[in-house]
Amino acid sequence: MLVQPVIDGGPLAAPPVSPLPGDMAIVASGATGSFAGHDGAVALYGVDGWRFFAPFDGCAVFDTAGGDVWRYALGSGWTTAGLSGSALMIDGVQVVGSRQAAILDPQGGSGADSKARTAIAEILAALRTHGLIAT
Fold this sequence. Notes:
By secondary structure, the protein is of the alpha+beta class. The chain has one helix at about 110-130; strands spanning about 5, 25, 40-45, 50-55, 60-65, 70-75, 75-80, 90, 95. The chain is built from one helix and nine strands. The longest helix is centred in the C-terminal third of the chain and has 18 residues, at about 110-130.
């Protein structure tokens, strides 16, 4: 049983040169050396060498090198795609929730109003770029 598996870098095709007991890795496809034949497995190094564990659907491994979480899905293998969830909470306060509907770009007006429209349009573009509102 693996509890809170942690790796130091993404999937590896070859085992590290000087592993220490407790080191872990996700075995990449086309693996070589002692990783050969264990593509997609989670490898754990112990005093008796490498042990391999088949990942289950939904298995998650934390990568200390990049701060990513690698997830395993049946049919698609290991992927890392950042965080997922329904809200971002900081100190118990929701600061980002579900993406909201599109907001139309400002129109009309003249003179000083054109500078305000430009500034508002830039704010809306940034929100869209970050996926906070729909396009």
